[in-house]
Design brief:
alpha/beta; 5 strands; about 10% strand; 8 helices
Length: about 325
Amino acid sequence: MSAKGANGTREDRRSPSATGGTAGAPEARVRVQRVFIVVLALNLSVALAKAVFGLLAGSVSMIADALHSGFDSFSNIVGIVALYFAGKPPDPEHPYGHGKIETLGTLAIGAMLLLTAAGILYEGYRRLVAPVTPAITAVTVGVMVVTLVINIAVSTYERRRGEEYRSQILVADSLHTRSDVFVSIAVLGGFLAVRLGYPQADPIIAFAIGLLIARMGIGILYDAAQVLTDAMNLPCDPALIRAVVMDTPGVAGYHDFRCRGKMGEIFADIHVTVDPALPVSLAHEISDEVERRLKETVPELAEVVVHIEPDNSP
């Protein structure tokens, strides 16, 4: 139990990683890594198909979509590596574990999206300056339709598993994959415009793809930054916390409740006041009970540090 006795000294301490939430458990990380491996194989297949037929057709929007799918694959690799290091046990230099490495991996995915967007916008500009009419065939359309279906399935699979395992990086990657769905629809729309006699629509679609990817990247970077800056945007409802703590026998009051972390791995601390005449052993039991009840009420809590203080109210 992480608590302070009535005399203000620390009684004992547990590592957050040892008590970690679902996302922090080793078995959960292994399951998330397996999801990434499956998605990696599918994304590589989709990217290769789009790239080959996009080059054959001379379609910049299709090639842009292939690049996006390719970075989906690279982000999967980043996710696998980040989860491997995030799962390492605490050490003297990292007594709270390595969980934030997963968030750093999420930042890397967001940064890669912004780089991809910049490349696509540049290529779209080049094609506007030097237009090239892509060759649209039944094969290229068929490839886009098939990969669209695959992207929908992959995105849905990633999202559901990310929510089930409470994995921030997997949910972020599912959003990355889901953007492929909208991109593919946009590319198909560009194909239709070209067939109707508007070849300039292809680079314009590429611009739209670039802006869409940039928006996704900024969103992912913002969410990761919220975690790294310990924003309190977490499921720690103050009213619920108050009800749970004040319902605990022996608690006279509380103050300074704080929580931080990420989905599936929340760390919190709270100051609880008790009768100053209580023996240290009883104060210890009360702090144990507060911790147990909070963890039962908010399952994503990895650790709650309960500070015991004497009640000085009249």
